[in-house]
# Entry
Amino acid sequence: MGTFSIWHWLIVLVIVLLLFGRDRIPKLAGDLAKGIKEFKSGMKEEDTAQAKTVEEAPQTIESTAAPAESDEPKDQTVNRA
# Structure
């Protein structure tokens, strides 16, 4: 009941062929493959950009470090009203 037999898949195949035709299915598959390749190349470009950002980040943090506190004790008086 929950599984598909070979007849179910044949019916689906016939319907797909009727809807899209023999000529259009290879074009759709080619477009899908092209989209996957572009997606992968975009992910690689993003990874390289993130790697460059991570390498540059410590330099930025070091240059914007807060000045060190002095060794002199601070005035710790409390104002009471």
Observations:
- Helices lie at 6-63.
- The chain is about 70% helix and 0% strand.
- Residues 24-60 form one domain.
- The mean pLDDT is 78.
